Amino acid sequence: MKRASLLLFIWVAVLLVCIYIIATRLSVSSDLGQFLPPIETSDSTHSGMAQSVLNDLVQGGHNTLIMIALEGDNAEELASQSRQLVAQLEASQHFKQVKNGSKSVLPGKDSLIYRYRYLLSKNTNPETFSQPALKETFTQRLDDLQSAQGSIVKRYLRSDPTMETLSILNQWRGDTHLKKKFGVWFDQKGESALILAEMKLTGYDIDQQEFLLNYLETTFESIRKQTDVTMIYSGPARFAVSTRNQIRTEIKWLSTIASLFIVLILAVAYRRIRLVLLSSLPLATALVVALAVSTTIFSSVHGITIAFGMTLIGVSIDYPVHSFSHWINNESLSRSLQKIWPTLLLSVVTTCLGYLSLLLTDFSGLKQLGVFTIVGLISAALVTRYVLPNLAGSSGVSLNVERCTQRLQHGRVISPYIALLVLLFSIVLIWMIPSRWETNLTALSPLPEQARKVDQHLRDKLAVADLNHIALIQASDIQKLLELQESLEPGLLSLQKSGAIDSFESLHKYLPSFQQQQRRQAFLPQSSELSKRIIKAQHDLPFQSGTFEQFILDVSASKSLEPIELDGLEKTIVGLKLSGLYLKNDSGYVGLIRFSNVTQPERLIEWAEQQKNSQIQYVNIRQLTETTLNRFRSEAMSRLMWGAGIIALFLLLALKPNRRFVSVLATLYSSILITLVLLNSLGEVLSLFHLLALVLVAGIGLDYSLFFSRPDHQLTSRCRTLHGIVVCMISTVSVFGILSFSSIPVLHAMGQTVALGVAISFVLSYWLARQPVIFEQEEL
Amino acid sequence: MITGKIIIKTRFLLCSVLFFIATVAATVELGEPQIALEEVMAKLSEISSSQANFNETKTIAFLNKPLLSEGRLSYVAPDHILKETLKPNYEKFEIKGDFLQVSKANGETHEINLQNYPAIKAFAEAYRGVLGGNLKRLEQFYEISFSGEIRHWIIVLVPKDDEMSEYIEKLVVEGHAGAVTKMITVETGGDNTEMNIIQVR
């Protein structure tokens, strides 16, 4: 008894320590990039750059952006609510900026663009300010005054006769697809009023994002009142919040139903409340210990690790089930357990060895998953062996095995050659019905289809570009980056001219480097010189003398301006655009040149290769994600192959090359292959999640076939084995069957695969793995 | 109101016929300016298309002589306006719905969404509102005052919208019966443009 209390004490102490670690140190990350392999490029210096871009993409680019559309009423009402909403959101201080286009399109004379026009404009060169050019400009302006745009021209003419402010604005604006109605942005059809908002966020905090989204919704409700206006919005924050909430609620009710099922099944199987309750202890302990250990080893645990890890160690509910099914009356549970312990241990150790291969990958997410699962399974096994017997009481489980023994007695044992034939057959099948693999990165996201559609819809309307073809440029600081980009401009323009690309976006188009700005300043003439030229230029034109006084003053003031920097420009109307054109990383800044309508990608590759001296890489994002995912798949596949190999080797050592070894292994492999074949013929597009689910199937299948193949010479004991496995199988299939009804793609995939796989494993193990009764005496 | 009923409402009345009826109508004393305004608008709205020549004088403070230009105007109800400046430089200015197309002699063409250019929009709405006799539309954008009589009327339009009034102080439209004869644009700051319109048909 003394030993029993010691074991219980240790168990409780470990649990408490683990709970303490979880409570104080657990930090859950949700960066999907951790689950992706590092990007491989020809040049290793480039991969970090591409990696950061891809991570950024997976997380949806600017995390803080919200796209909003107001719909469902007449344009005037929509416009008025758009204005109110923007005003209130701006006043709240929760948002960096909120825009609906209502600010005057023409920059005022107090604006940054106006003030820095000669530093920002491409046209600032000696030629522009020469006397003949000025004369031509003035003459042109005289014509303009008579034309349709006369009033706009007049507004700038005296201080900005070359119309730099407007030409900068035109350059910056590009092709905007937005139109204005009642002074605010609308989509092309004029049905939805559009707003772009950027949240103020401190780090990646879903609660804060949820708070801001709720704030947006309540603000809208207070403006909307009784009208028919509806608001749709999207953005990374929305995704993060709704994914979390949806997973939360779905997990809640799915797990409630699943737990009820398990309780029901166990209650029917053992008819004792105590055993039902006890059977949850190994799993619960496994979760706590695995989480605590992962928290200790890794700086933060990935959300996906926890979700999948929990599923993968779900197999540990089988351990107490096996024990209880073998618990004979008049014997302590500990004694009964001893008999099946070698098999159970073999199953646990083999499964863990299979997962060991995960530890050797360079994907930190998979590594975490490996640690989590191995730690979990071992703790569950230990709890089953050393804690449960001390809590289970003294009376065993009586089972009516009469019918079962009869059947087993007459049942035929299949030769291992048949098992090998089945394996061969499934290999042929998988070769005939190959898998289709998901190459679209977004399909990995747990978002429901609908949310993605809304997002795409709003992106189209607001013309927020999707990245696809980009060139990445690494520089140590922002000025170096801008200078590099400026040196690339001629090449880019000739690409554009030749039709290889339609247009390109680059940071330097908006923000000239210091060097460039200073060059332009040097081009500006002294005021005495300029006024001389102006007097001559306007000689026979009808301008009053002194008309261009302000122009002379402004040019002179521009000469001594401090060059404009990134943070200055970010406050202007192009601020939002700028944030999509560069990233910060460990080695400085990465500039993104974004190409639109690429017709000849090979020309871009060629172009990037020609820029040998600079850190440039052309990336086709779609191709990149495709190859990345393919690489991920082959990496994961090879790990699993290794795992399968390790399992085979270990079983060979443990079981010796006998018929049990052959049938167990053949059963295990063919179950997985046939599950895969079935999924393929169902038309499922396979992803990472299916793969992980198959790993679980392998673990469970191994457990079944090892137990079915126990060289037990007592028929009653074999019936107890059968009883245990049936209970395990029914509970697993029903739990994962329930999961397959989830609307979250990930849960659906896992549920379907595991339910199917476990059913197949059960059938195959029962059929193929059973061993003849007396021949072998060893106790494995 | 009796006079209104006398007018035979036919879409194909020519300008001269209109003018004749208008003269008859003008002999009847008009009471309220609002009623007279509605009369004028009703007449204007009956015109489904018109063509005219114009000459324009633009007076700008910083220029020591006014800018002169001339050309052709045409209007097709309800919202198609074409203004072709022939002298001194060719320019085609065409408004259809919310879109403005400006073409120069060298073939350079700009298309502008009027929503983005309040100053030009102010013009367009005034042209369209007056030529189409669409009082409701005019009232949406302008404070309207009316003086004179049907034989010779003056409508003064003051923009309601702040963005518009940044550029335009008021528009003065003069005409007789269903024909516009003069349009004066007074810009904020005092510069003005006077356009004389001579109907062709």
Description:
The complex is a heterodimer of chains A (780) and B (201). By secondary structure, chain A is of the alpha+beta class. Chain A is built from 32 helices and 15 strands. In chain A, α1 (2-25) packs antiparallel against α16 (364-391), α14 packs antiparallel against α31 (715-739) and α30 (688-708) packs parallel to α32 (745-769). Chain A is elongated and about 120 Å long. Chain A starts with a helix and ends in an 11-residue tail after the last helix. By secondary structure, chain B is of the alpha+beta class. Chain B has a single domain (4-199), classed as outer membrane lipoprotein receptor (LolB), chain A, CATH 2.50.20. Helix content of chain B is 27%, strand content 44%. In chain B, α4 (118-131) runs antiparallel to α5 (135-141). Chain B is globular.
Question: Can you give the mean pLDDT of chain B?
Answer: 76
| Mean of pLDDT of chain A | 82
Low-confidence stretches of chain A: 41-45, 58-62, 775-780
Strand arrangement, largest sheet of chain B?
Answer: 6-5-4-3-2-1-11-10-9-8-7
Largest sheet of chain B: 11 strands, antiparallel
Main β-sheet of chain A, in a few words? Answer: 5 strands, antiparallel
- Low-confidence blocks of residues of chain B: 1-31
General shape of chain B: globular
Principal-axes geometry of chain A comes out as elongated
Number of domains of chain B: 1
CATH topology of chain B, what is it called?
outer membrane lipoprotein receptor (LolB), chain A
DSSP strand content of chain A: 5-15%
The H-and-E topology of chain B, N to C, reads as HHHEEEEEEHHEEHEEE
- Judged by helices, strands and strand pairing, the structural class of chain A is alpha+beta
Intertermini distance of chain A: 29 Å
Task: Supply the CATH class of chain B.
Answer: Mainly Beta
Radius of gyration of chain A: 35 Å
* Strand element count of chain B: 11
CATH superfamily of chain B: Lipoprotein localisation LolA/LolB/LppX
Span from first to last CA of chain B? 28 Å
